[in-house]
Each structure stands twice: as structure tokens, then as C-alpha cells.
Amino acid sequence: MAPASTHGEHFAEVVLVRHGQTDWNVSRIIQGRIDQELNETGRQQATKVARRLSEEAKPAAVYSSDLKRASETAQTIAAHCCVSDSDLVIDRALTERHGGLFQGWTFDDAKRSEAYKVFARGGRDQEIPGGGESLDQLSERLVPRLNAIAEKHKGERVVVVSHEAVIEEICRHADPTISVGRKIPNTSISVVHISGSDGRWILEKFGDAGHLIGDGFPHSTL
């Protein structure tokens, strides 16, 4: 993995890590903001990605969504990478996309519902029924926060532990041509170089789960 200096001292290297597996991932239930804990497989995955990151350049900080599945993954990474408690930041701006009406539904049930069919036909400004976020709203929440993190950590590496929809939107902002059909496995790594001062984003890596070779992953859900 290339160091942040590859793209100049004004860029931060932001390493995006999806949280480890939960029981709802296995059952294909849409989690959204519902606060599920890691299962045993998820804890093992968190340890594997933490060991991988500990063998690379030390991050200046670890930022995490406030949800348990992300914060537990982040704590494991911080411990293996010798990141101090003061540099482990729980940040609600990095929380998962709100799944609205469909939170707690199985993905298959959601796809069969008329409400989901109507939602799926909409564009980026289409809000999820029941108080969920549109993709535009998700981007408006994430982009300023990532720019602020990058501005604070110019020339440094930071780890951001978050969720599938969040990481997908961040990577899509960096490279609008990216295929949204590609998977972001649990504890996979994506890398974006961000210059917070001028808004330049460069996608380097997407959904790399090389540290989990041989492990199985659930299908993607919100």
C-alpha cells in the first residue's frame, strides 16, 4: 500500500475498513442504524485486519462510527497498531446510512415490498421510506467530515472504520466510475487519498480482503 506522500504532503491517506461480521449479516437482515454487535467470526476478522494494518505504516489516528460493530472493530485495530486512546475517535458522522422502514427486514422481504420497489426506481435524491437517508443526504454528511479529517492529518495515514453504504459512497465520491455492484466484504480495506484543502480525492484501493483469504462473506445489505 502506497504511503500518503505518494500523492503529496497535502493529502491524507484514509484507510477505510468495514466492520466485522454480525449475526444479521449472516441472516441477510438490513441493519442500518440498529446497533448490532460483532459475532465470533466478526471478532476474528477484526483481529486479522488489525494484524495486517499493524504491519504497515502506523496510523496517526483511528476514527470510527458510533455503532458497536464498528467501534469494536476500531478498538481492535487501535490496540494492534498501538494507537492511543486519545487518538481513537468515535464519530457519529461516520455512522451507517439510515435504512428507514427497511431496518430489521430481511433483504429478500424488502426487495419483494412495493415500498422498496418504488424506492429502488428513484435517483440519488430519493429518500428511503420511513425516515431513511438518500444517497445525496449521505454524501452531504460524509464528504465534509472526511475533508475535515484529511485537513487535520495532512501527510499522515488514518484509519476510518465504518459501514458498507458509507464506504461505498466515499469511494464513489472519489471515483464516480466505480461499479456499485462490487462487494465490500466485512473488514475489507479501501484506500482514498484526500486533500481536504482543495477537495481532491483519489481512490487507490476498493474492497481488498486479502487478509481473509479462504473466509466466506455474507451478501451485502444496507
TrEMBL record:
Annotated catalytic residues: H19 (tele-phosphohistidine intermediate), E96 (proton donor/acceptor)
Molecular function (Gene Ontology), one example: phosphatase activity
Record-level GO cellular component terms: cytosol
Annotated positions binding substrate: R18, H19, G20, Q21, T22, D23, W24, N25, R69
Sections of the chain in a coiled coil: none
Record-linked InterPro entries: His_Pase_superF_clade-1 (IPR013078), His_PPase_superfam (IPR029033), PG/BPGM_mutase_AS (IPR001345), PGM_Phosphatase (IPR050275)
Family: Belongs to the phosphoglycerate mutase family.
UniProt-recorded name of the protein: Phosphoglycerate mutase
